[in-house]
Write a structure and sequence with these properties.
Distance between the termini: 26 Å
Catalytic activity: GTP + H2O = GDP + phosphate + H(+)
Oligomer: single chain
Number of domains: 3
Strand content: 5-15%
Keywords: Cytoplasm, GTP-binding, Hydrolase, Nucleotide-binding, Ribonucleoprotein, RNA-binding, Signal recognition particle
EC number: 3.6.5.4
Subcellular location: Cytoplasm
Subunit structure: Part of the signal recognition particle protein translocation system, which is composed of SRP and FtsY.
Bound molecules: guanosine-5'-diphosphate
Number of strands: 7
CATH superfamily of the largest domain: P-loop containing nucleotide triphosphate hydrolases
Structural class: alpha/beta
Length: 444
């Protein structure tokens, strides 16, 4: 899953720090040495790592003792804040205002996910009430033009009629004119890719950027290619002046090297991430949420946003409040399970829950499969109201009764209680920290 290896590595570093009542400069230095190795193994650019470690060390050593946090937590907090900074500090929305139509060009190597991203972006913008227009300008592969027509059909967005006989720059010019004519407000230009950076391609892209007023040039890269993605992004940026980056296939990127380096190296923000092959698998990139995920704090906000789309709004808000106030009972756990069941793709959703990484490492970790969820649900349903409100009263005889009532075993009941208390612990640990910036949501 996303950033999984890095999360595991950092977690074991911080576990050691937690044992200390007080941290010495030496403890911090030791920890930072390990963080450094973890980042390098995650394929983060070495210069970026060096600066990162220097910044964290300085802040962690010079830190005043905050009574609400243990020394170990304080170091985690510093690392979290620096990660947010590294990832771009704040969300960078698409520029969609000013003279209409606006034009967005997608550029990148072949196979990076440009065409798919064009379709996803069109879908997302249409949902926001805009009128996108998809423009196939990859004239070297007839299949690419065809692919965009298919995607346009699927998302209900018109596609410019281009052929392999046309020159890309003419396609762009004619498409923008047609958009003006027909009242489309967002032109999305899908361009050709090559296997490697190549001068002919750069010239072609530069020609397009001179021929039509582009508000965005988004560089699309496959996150799994790590530092290679960053090197290519840097090259595109110096030739083309990109305005932002889209990292695709990030759901499978266990290391995170590209995500953590590209902003520092190019100076250009990650605007979107691709999290799957389906057309709804594109997300606005939130540096703070990503940092929380990397540190195994989960991504509660994204989870809630997803929940809000599919489920009962009132319940989702209640859940959000409980998570923030740490009054999360077994009853809420049950609610959450039911919502998760409605939302599909369990593995991905589970990753958003705080502390889930820890749970996965337990020997009897609950697997995110439907049957497990149903069992968990049955177990919680066999508890009394009192038990659901206060898990501490669930003693051995109650456990036996619950197992019997749910047709499971005491071991299975224990496992559910253990996942629940682990979750509580995780939330408590991060309480009071600005991990989740409450409620503020910017528009796309
Ligand atoms: P292009 O050559 O740059 O236009 O790349 P495509 O859009 O054709 O994508 C190449 C492959 O990557 C296709 O199989 C896509 O389904 C896949 N792909 C694109 N974005 C994502 C993503 O975010 N996650 C995953 N898993 N696959 C993706």
């Amino acid at each position: 899953a996303m950033f999984e290896n890095l999360t595991d590595r950092l977690d074991s570093v911080f576990k050691k720090l937690r044992g200390h009542g007080k941290l010495t400069e030496e403890n911090i230095q030791d920890a930072m040495r390990e963080v450094r190795v973890a980042l390098l193994e995650a394929d983060v650019n070495y210069k970026v790592v060096k600066e990162f470690i220097a910044a964290v060390t300085e802040k962690a050593v010079g830190r005043e003792v905050l009574s609400s946090l243990s020394p170990g937590q304080q170091v985690i907090k510093v690392v979290h804040d620096e990660l947010v900074e590294l990832l771009g500090s704040h969300e960078e929305p698409l520029r969609l205002d000013g003279r209409q139509p606006v034009s967005i060009m997608l550029a990148g190597l072949q196979g990076s996910g440009k065409t798919t991203t064009a379709g996803k972006l069109a879908r997302m913008l249409r949902e926001k009430g805009r009128k996108p227009f998809l423009v196939p300008a990859d004239v070297y592969r007839p299949a690419a033009i065809q692919q965009l027509h298919v995607l346009g059909e699927q998302v209900g967005v018109p596609v410019f009629d281009s052929t392999t006989e046309d020159r890309p720059v003419d396609i762009a010019k004619r498409a923008v004119a047609e958009a003006e004519d027909k009242g489309y407000d967002t032109v999305i230009i899908d361009t050709a890719g090559r296997l490697h950076v190549d001068e002919a391609l750069m010239t072609e892209l530069k020609d397009i950027s001179r021929a039509v007023p582009l508000t965005e040039i988004l560089f699309v890269a496959d996150a799994m290619t790590g530092q290679d993605a960053v090197t290519v992004a840097d090259k595109f940026n110096s030739d083309l002046e990109i305005t932002g980056v889209v990292l695709t296939k990030i759901e499978g990127d266990a290391r995170g090297g590209a995500a953590l380096s590209v902003k520092k190296v190019t100076g250009k923000p990650i605007k979107f991430v691709g999290v799957g092959e389906s057309l709804d698998a594109l997300e606005v990139f939130h540096p703070d949420r990503a940092a929380s995920r990397i540190l195994g704090m989960g991504d509660v906000l994204s989870l809630i946003e997803k929940a809000e789309k599919v489920v009962d709004q009132k319940k989702a808000r209640k859940l959000a409040r409980k998570l923030q106030k740490n009054t999360f009972t077994l009853e809420d756990f049950l609610d959450q399970i039911q919502q998760i069941k409605k939302m599909g793709n369990l593995e991905q959703l589970m990753d958003m829950i705080p502390g889930i990484n820890k749970l996965k490492q337990l020997k009897d970790a609950p697997k995110p499969d439907e049957r497990e969820l149903i069992k968990t649900e049955a177990i919680i349903r066999s508890m009394t109201k009192k038990e659901r409100a206060n898990h501490k009263i669930i003693n051995a005889s109650r456990r036996q009764r619950i197992a019997k009532g749910s047709g499971t075993t005491v071991a299975e009941v224990n496992r559910v209680l253990k996942s629940y208390t682990m979750m509580l612990k995780m939330m408590k640990k991060f309480r009071g920290k600005p991990v989740v910036r409450g409620g503020k949501r910017r528009k796309l």
